[in-house]
Amino acid sequence: VTTAVMVTRDSLLNVCMDAKHHKTEPGPEGQLYGQCVLWKDNACCTANTSMEAHEDQSYLYNFNWDHCGAMPEKCKRHFIQDTCLYECSPNLGPWIDQADTSWRKERIRDVPLCQEDCEQWWEDCQDAVTCKVNWHKGWNWTTGTNQCPKGAMCQKFKFVFPTAAALCEQIWSGSYRYTSHHRGSGRCIQMWFDPAQGNPNIAVAQYYA
User: Fold this and answer.
1) Contact 153/133 with Cβ under 8 angstroms?
2) Which helix (H) or strand (E) is 75 found in, with range?
3) CA dist., res. 177 & res. 112, Å (int)
4) pLDDT tens, the chain, 209 aa long
5) Example GO molecular function term (predicted)?
C-alpha cells in the first residue's frame, strides 16, 4: 500500500499539466522573462512563453486584458503573475484536473491561494473595468480576440467581484480557491515569492499530495 501511495504522491509532484503551451516535463530555463523569472530554476514554460505572458494581447490565447478600456498597470501585473504561475509552475500537480476543451487536456482546479496574494490582487484591481465574471467562457471571439458579449456592461471590478474571494474563485471558473492561510504557512500557493529564498510552493504541493 505504502509504495502505491508513494507512487501516486510522486506523480503529483514536479509535473507539468497537459495544456496548450506547457513543456512535457519541468526543467531549468536559462532565460525566463520579467515576472516569470521566479521559476527559471525549474519551469514548465519556455522562455518564449514567459515573454508572451507579458504581452497585452499575446499569441498564447489571443486574450485582451483591455476589453473594457486600458487595465491599470498595477492590476495587470497580477494577471501576468497569474499567467506565469499557470504556465511555469511545476508545483500545481495536486490540483490538476481533466479539462474537456479543444485546447487543453488538463486544467487546475481549487488551487489554495494565499490570502495576501488574493487580497492584493483584488486591492490593485478594484478600479479596473470588465464586463464578465468568468473569463474562461462566453466572450465574443468573432474578431479573433475576446470582446464583451452583446449586452454585457463594463463595470469596475469591485462591482463585478465584490470580494477578493469572488475575484480569485470566479474569474477562471474555480481554478483558485480563496484561503485564510498566510504566505509562508506551507498551506497555500504563492503567486509571488522571492526566488532567493527558494520556492515555497514545493513544500505546499508536498503537503497536499
Assistant:
1) no
2) helix 73-88
3) 5
4) 566 666 566 788 999 999 889 999 999 998 899 999 999 999 999 999 999 999 887 777 889 999 999 999 999 999 999 999 999 999 999 999 998 788 789 999 999 999 999 999 999 999 999 999 999 999 999 999 999 999 999 999 999 999 999 999 999 999 999 999 999 999 999 999 999 999 999 999 999 99
5) signaling receptor activity
